[in-house]
Every structure is written in C-alpha cells, then in structure tokens.
Design a protein that fits this description.
Blueprint (H helix, E strand, L loop, with lengths): L1 H6 L1 H30 L4 H28 L6 H11 L9 H13 L4 H30 L1 H6 L1 H13 L2 H14 L11 H30 L6 H17 L9 H10 L5 H29 L1 H4 L25
Helix pairs in contact: 2-13, 3-4, 3-6, 3-10, 3-13, 4-5, 4-13, 5-6, 6-8, 6-10, 6-11, 10-11, 10-13, 11-12, 12-13
Length: 327
C-alpha cells in the first residue's frame, strides 16, 4: 500500500503542496513584524542579505555532497543540488523525519542506497552543528563577553563533538546505529580528507549566513565591522542550536530567541528582534528560491532522467512512504 501511495502522482503533488504551504506559513507568521523591520532597510542591503543567505545554503549543500562522496556515492553537482534543495523543503514540516526522508528518498532515486543516504545526512548535520558551535566559540568572545558568560556550554560542547567527528569514532557510531536497526554496516566509512572537505564548505556556509545577519544589522543600526563577529557567531550558534531542537520545524522560534539573546547586549533589543525576524524571512525566501530551482531542474520536469536507483532490500520499502512525492 505504501509503495502504491508513493508512486501515485496525486499523492506526490498533495504532499508537495503541504511542504510549500508550511513554508508559506513561515513567511505569513513573520510578515507583520518583518515588514516594519525591512522598512528601515535599503533595498540593496536586503538584496545582498538574501544573496548571502543563498550562498550559505549552497555551501551547506556542497558539504553534504562532500560527505556523500566520501561514503562512496559521488553525485554530479546538478543532481546533488536537486536532491538537497528539494529535500530541504521538508524541514518546514513539524518533526525531524521529513527532511531526512526527503534527502534519503530523492538520493535513492539518484542511485544512492538508503543506508548511505541516512548516514550522509546524519554526518553532515553533525558537522554543521559542530562547526557552528566552533565558530560561535571563536567569534562571540571578541565582541560580547556577556553573551559568552551565559553560553559557556558552547565551549564545553565543541571538544566533545569534535571527538565524535573523528573518522574512527564516527565510523563506529554509524555502523553501531545501523546494526541496532538490523542493517549491514557501510561499505566505506568517513575519512579525514572527506570530513575536512565537508568542514571547509560548512565553515564557508556559516560565514555567508553570518554575513547575511551583519548586512541586516548594519542596515538597521548603522554599526559597521565591529559587530561582524557577533553577527557570524550569533547566527551560527542560533542555527546550530535550532538544528538540535527537532520539535521546532526548521528551528522556528528557538533560533530567533537565541539570536536575540546574543545580539541584545550590543544593540537595542528592538533592533535585535527586527534582525532576527528579517533573517528568518530572508532565509525562508532563500529556501523557497533554491527549492523552486531544484524542482525546475529536476529530471522529471526537465526531461533528463535521474540515475537508476540502487536495489534495496524489500524491508526498506516502507521508508519510501514519504517524499518520493517531490521527485
């Protein structure tokens, strides 16, 4: 029954509509307050901020692609972009499973085994959280000692996450998790070189996303380079913490609260609130723009077929009950 559902074009179209409606609600909920904040911005500041957000999303996609290639499933750049940017629409649906299932199933359609797809998403998220907390630990003490005192746990978490991301440790953790779910271990584990490439792209992603916040902050308050470190570190911390709080779709609410708390010691509270709301609006717009790009560039819409999917045991078929509808 699940296989019939996922191959039904009406089911796929209906679930895609749910994804887009959830994204639209994120825009609608923040619109009244965000418009007041954006009114104080020059159009070019908002445009540059949106461009920085889209650049950050692109770098994060490249990090996931690097992890996937390291595990043994290299994807062409266009295919990886389609899988990642369409799959990311699932993060706006409450619950952590949807974006994961979207990446896994769309990757499976492109020839990536589901075991490897799950592992790649898990590793890329771990790298993103670890790098985000590391960026925050390096930048926040430069501009906000008060925020650092309240966020001491970041400094404690970074070495623990770094130890877990060491390839020998990470490989054992992944294979142990697969064993507990009655799945065979990965044919190839993560390597130092692969994780280094993913980490490099992820750090570039955090820098671009932090630049997005700084452009908004500079446009609203007139502050210059002095607030650049706190913009980068504050957003990296807020976004990384939002990824851990899986009960909030795409960290809605939690990310804004953390970012406001970090910015409030150095800028007026009203400005911090406006920046957080505007950043949410532009980040959502970036996700929608990249998602639309992925849909328009998908093999089904462009006439170019996806690579054939790798065969999977029948026991994994139920995992396909979601998100193949957006391929």
């Amino acid at each position: 029954m699940l296989n019939r559902l996922v191959t039904n074009p009406w089911t796929r179209a209906g679930m895609l509509a749910v994804f887009l409606a959830c994204c639209g609600y994120g825009l609608y909920a923040a619109w009244p307050q965000a418009t007041a904040a954006l009114a104080r911005l020059d159009w070019y500041s908002a445009a540059l901020s949106l461009a920085a957000a889209m650049a950050g999303a692109w770098f994060m996609m490249l990090a996931w692609r690097a992890v996937l290639a390291d595990l043994g499933s290299p994807l062409p750049l266009g295919t990886a972009a389609r899988v990642s940017f369409v799959g990311q629409l699932g993060k706006y649906v409450p619950g952590a499973v949807w974006a994961l299932a979207a990446h896994v199933e769309l990757g499976h359609d492109a020839g990536v085994s589901r075991r490897r797809g799950v592992a790649a998403v898990a590793v890329s998220l771990a790298v993103a959280v670890g790098a985000g907390l590391g960026v925050a630990a390096l930048t926040l003490p430069l501009t906000s000692p008060q925020a650092t005192r309240h966020l001491w746990w970041v400094l404690v978490a970074v070495p623990v996450i770094a130890l877990g991301l060491c390839p020998p440790v990470l490989g054992r953790l992944i294979n142990r998790a697969l064993t507990l779910t009655a799945r065979p271990p990965l044919e190839r584990g993560p390597s130092w070189g692969g994780l280094a490439r993913a980490l490099g792209w992820t750090v570039l992603g955090w820098l671009a996303l932090g630049l997005q916040v700084w452009l908004l902050l500079a446009g609203m308050t007139g502050r210059g380079a002095s607030v650049l470190p706190i913009a980068i570190g504050g957003y990296a911390l807020a976004y990384a913490a939002g990824l851990l709080l899986v009960v909030f779709p795409n960290g809605i609410g939690a990310r804004e609260i953390i970012l406001i708390a970090v910015l409030a010691p150095v800028v007026p509270h009203g400005a911090a609130l406006a920046v957080a709301l505007a950043a949410r609006l532009l980040t959502t717009a970036s996700d929608l723009a990249w998602g639309l790009f992925g849909l328009m560039a998908s093999g089904r819409l462009s006439g170019r077929p996806w690579a054939p999917a790798a065969p999977e045991p029948k026991g994994d078929a139920s995992a396909a009950a979601f998100t193949r509808i957006i391929h």
